[in-house]
Amino acid sequence: MRLRLAALLPTLVGLVALLALGSTGFGALSLRQASESLDRVSHEALEPMVHLKALSDAYAVSVVDASHKVRNGGFTWEEGAQALADATGIIDRAWRAVSTMELSPASAGPMADARTRIAAAQRLLADVTIIVRDRDAARLDSLVRERLYPAIDPLTESIGLLLDAQIASSGTLVTAALAEARDDVWVAVALLAAMLALLVGVATIIVLRVTRPITQVTNATRMLAAGRLDATIPHGARADEVGELARAVIVFQGGLQEAEAARTAQAEARTRAEADRAAALQDMAEKVEAETGQAVDLVATQMAAIARDTLAMADTANLVSTESGAVRQAAGEAQANVQTVAAATEELGASIREIVVQVTNTANATRKAATRGQEGRASIEALSREVERIGGVARLIADIAGQTNLLALNATIEAARAGDAGKGFAVVANEVKTLAAQTAKATEDIARQVEEVTRATESTVSVVTEMADAVAEVNGAAGAIAAAMEEQGAATQEIARAIGLASQAAGSVNDGIARVAGQVADTGIRAVQLREGAAAASDAVGGLRGKLVKVVRQSAPEVDRRSAPRFPADMPAQLRLPNGAIRTVTVIDLSLTGCALDAGATLPPVGSTVALQLAQPGTGFSGQALVVGAEGRLRLCFMSLDEAQRAALARIIAIVAAKQAA
Fold first, then answer.
1. How many CA atoms does the CB half-sphere of 237 hold within 13 Å?
2. Is the pLDDT assigned to residue 485 strictly greater than 70?
3. What is the C-alpha separation between 82 and 132, in angstroms, rounded?
4. Which residues, at least 6 apart from 143, have a Cβ–Cβ distance to it below 8 Å?
5. How confident is the model at residue 260 (pLDDT cuts 50, 70, 90)?
6. Residue 234 in 3-state DSSP?
7. Which parts of the chain span the membrane according to its record (predicted)?
């Protein structure tokens, strides 16, 4: 049975800690021994050597050098006295230290010699000091030559022997210290090797039982986190903490698998719901767009039919107006002709009355009968021509009346087609029809009277001819002529009355035609207004269709066919039309795939290709575009843009968006 990690790891850490504590204690003890060895070397060897070297230098260098320099003039007396005083202080301190130190056994002989010889050296130093203080050059010279070296050289020799003995003693101490240090180093190395072996064992145990299993479980957990729910979780059978962790991860894996299965089912259901929703929205958008398009197309067709009918009505009104003018002019001419006929008839009545008077006086003027007969014959022929002319005028009036009746009938039909807007015109057309009927009736009366006048005129011509042929029978036929003249007078009066009625009818026709012309002009104006209203309604319905389709297409992302966002813009641009003409337009909105323009009234047809140029500070765009809509505004779709064109367009859109944000 393996230990649990909670017990194994503290045990291993305790072993490492104990070994480290032992190594540390041994190291501290070794350092203490080394420190004691160094102190002994320093106290027993190095410090005596330092004081001996100072003592030797003070006598051999300072005293000897000061004596020679004062003797030779290299030092003044004051400098020499100061140098000797300094050397005396050094000698006293060094000798006291050496005298009190524990020296090595090998230094006992040289130390005894030094004690004997230092007395002579100290006496020499005292004498030199007194001589320099007294500034006695002769005594100084004698001392240097006779006493200086014999007193100092033996002392320095003894000091050298002491140094050699101390050096040998310090070497022995150092050798012993080094031997102890080597022993300590080997022990430390052994402890270090044991600690390293323990650390390696601990590390191996940790790696094999902790790190590697935890790493494997961690990798398996990462695989689960990455979505690989079928990954194998190791160490699930272990009885320690790693096994518990592995079993917990296995339980977590099962939960993840169940959650993934539920999430997959939910995702599939959501995908189906989104697809159904998108399909429903797409179907709704297409149905709304199709039905809206059909309704708008039907309205546009009806508006176009109304516009065509209105245009036809306006043309008819113009034609009626033109014809009414012609009829009015003809009626005026007819009225003038009728007035002329009336004047001629009046003249005829006067002539007939004159003929009656002449017939009464025929008996008294027989000789003048022949002449008057010829004049009467000429007058009657003229009368016949006038009567014939009256007949032509009557026929002209009849023709005008018939044409007016036809025009009134056409006007009534057009008024019926126009509906409520043509009711007033229908009333006028009925009045014109009535006047045309009255004119036709009056014309028939005139024709009948003209026929009677014609027959009477023919009879008169025969009578006058007979008068010319047989003047002699004038008196006998005077009564018959008088009766005939009375009948002719009555007929002439009837003709005058009929001509008056015809003149009144022609005036009525003229006034009616004038009213018809006015009503026709009003009808033409209303037809133009109706056509403009129909065009405006057609444009409004087309705009409504575009806005409705836009609202439906933008109501949800599933039915929005825009592949790039649009940005509102208000910037000028140059548009090259298919015919090569260049027009300045205003960009309303802009995207990476197309734009909308305010291009004026005349727009290029859908499906045509145009060229668009945009300019902004520091950049510009030029490219081909396809016209995809021309309902109120011109909608373009860019064609085959390269990378440079797309980059330029993106910079312009960024500038436009920045202006809108500001």
1. 2
2. no
3. 10
4. 67, 124, 127, 128, 131
5. confident
6. coil
7. 185-208
- Cβ contact 16:194 at 8 Å: no
* Angle in degrees, 0-180, between the axes of helices 474-554 and 423-469, rounded to the nearest 10: 160
Architecture of domain 364-519: Orthogonal Bundle (1.10)
| Tens digit of each residue's pLDDT (9 = 90 or more) over 514-566 | 675 666 566 667 666 766 765 665 555 555 555 655 555 555 555 555 567 88
Q: Cα separation of 486 and 352, whole Å?
A: 8
Q: Which uninterrupted H or E stretch holds 243? A: helix 241-360
373 half-sphere exposure, CB direction, 13 A CA radius: 23
| Closest to 407 in 3D by CA, of 330, 316, 333 | 316
**Residues 390 and 341: beta-carbon distance below 8 Å:** yes
Residue 611's pLDDT is 93
With contact defined as beta carbons under 8 Å apart, do 220 and 233 qualify?
yes
Q: For the domain 562-661, what is the CATH code?
A: 2.40.10.220
CA distances from 70 to 78, 87, 357, 366 (A): 9, 15, 209, 217
pLDDT interval class at 183 (50, 70, 90): confident
Residue ranges covered by each domain of the chain: 5-204, 281-354+521-547, 364-519, 562-661
The answer to which of 162-171, 228-237, 245-254, 341-350 has the lowest mean pLDDT is 341-350
Q: How confident is the model at residue 644 (pLDDT cuts 50, 70, 90)?
A: very high
What is the rounded distance in angstroms from the CA atom of residue 493 to the CA atom of residue 513?
A: 30
Lowest mean pLDDT among 209-213, 293-297, 448-452: 293-297
Question: What local confidence, expressed as pLDDT, does residue 492 receive?
Answer: 62
How many CB atoms are located within 10 Å of the residue 574 CB?
14
Q: What does the alpha-carbon distance between residue 523 and residue 318 come to, in Å, rounded to a whole number?
A: 9
Query: Is 638 strand, coil or helix?
Result: strand
Give the whole-angstrom CA distance, residue 58 versus residue 90: 7
pLDDT band at 217 (very low <50, low <70, confident <90, very high): confident
Residue-wise pLDDT tens digits, 506-515: 566 567 666 7
Distance CA 641, CA 649 (A): 10
Start-to-end C-alpha separation, the chain: 76
Strands 609-616, 594-598: pairing is unpaired
> For the range 172-178, what are the long-range contacts, defined as Cβ-Cβ under 8 Å and sequence gap of 24 or more?
173/37, 173/40, 173/41, 173/44, 173/45, 174/41, 176/37, 177/34, 177/37, 177/38, 177/41
Instruction: Give the DSSP per-residue string, 147-167.
Output: IIHHHHHHHHHHHHHHHHHHH
Q: Which of 322, 495, 517, 489 is nearest to 393 (CA)?
A: 495
pLDDT single digits (tens) 160-172: 888 888 788 777 7
Q: In the predicted model, what is the mean pLDDT of the chain?
A: 76
The alpha helices in 44-76, defined as continuous H runs, are: 47-57, 64-72
What architecture is domain 5-204? Up-down Bundle (1.20)
What pLDDT was estimated at residue 624? 93
- Which two tokens mark 497? 């009355």
Q: Is 273 helix (H, G, I), strand (E, B) or coil?
A: helix
